[in-house]
Amino acid sequence: MSEKLNDLFANNRAWAEDVEAREPGFFTRLLHQQTPQYLWIGCADSRVPANELVGLLPGELFVHRNVANVVIPTDLNCLSVLQYAVDQLRVRHVMVVGHSRCGGVMAALGNVRVGLADNWLRHVQDVRDRHREFLDRLPAERRVDALCELNVLEQSRNLCRTTIVEDAWARGQDVAVHGWVYGLHNGLIADLAITASGPADVEPAYEAALAALHRRFGDG
């Protein structure tokens, strides 16, 4: 085994010992229950460690990650995670979390070929094309982060339109959808204020968040 991989095992042992020292019996309790209140749908970028960013331990945050935090009705992987989290774990909050300077968003914005992922990033390009006029008015250096935030808004709305969330709301289940963005430059999460707790909230929340985004980037 390479020295680098040995380091990972050593780090794991140190982490487990530290957790057990701080909370004796933690792993034994974790073995018998999983009761997270949150589902995080984020980017696969290695610089965005979900649990650490919000200070939650294993068992407290259910996580799904993919390139550029995309939520589409044909992605059975994402939908399976969503359904298990909502129907079985009964999470109360689902967050779509993008991040600044996202490589997938950068590739989508500039039509950069990266391989098989080009087909996946077509969904982000659809967001780009939908907001092309706004993006073209921005200085070039601001377009990537603007598209990162626009992508969060669009994917959050997509999430609200899934049958899983719609059915949960229809039966009166308490679950809210949120759109956030993480700043690689400062380590802070910002709430983009697209929050919906029922079908009537979705479009007003989207429109208000979109207007706020335009103002934030100096357009309108």
From TrEMBL:
Catalytically driven reaction(s): hydrogencarbonate + H(+) = CO2 + H2O
UniProt cross-references to InterPro entries, sorted A to Z: Carbonic_anhydrase (IPR001765), Carbonic_anhydrase_CS (IPR015892), Carbonic_anhydrase_sf (IPR036874)
EC supergroup of this enzyme: lyase
Cofactor(s) this protein cannot do without: Zn(2+)
Keywords: Lyase, Metal-binding, Zinc
EC number(s) per entry: 4.2.1.1
Pfam families per record: Pro_CA
Lyase in keyword set: yes
Listed Gene3D superfamilies: Carbonic anhydrase
Keyword Hydrolase on entry: no
Similarity annotation: Belongs to the beta-class carbonic anhydrase family.
Protein function: Reversible hydration of carbon dioxide.
Name of the featured protein: Carbonic anhydrase
Top-level taxonomy: Bacteria, Pseudomonadati, Pseudomonadota, Betaproteobacteria, Burkholderiales
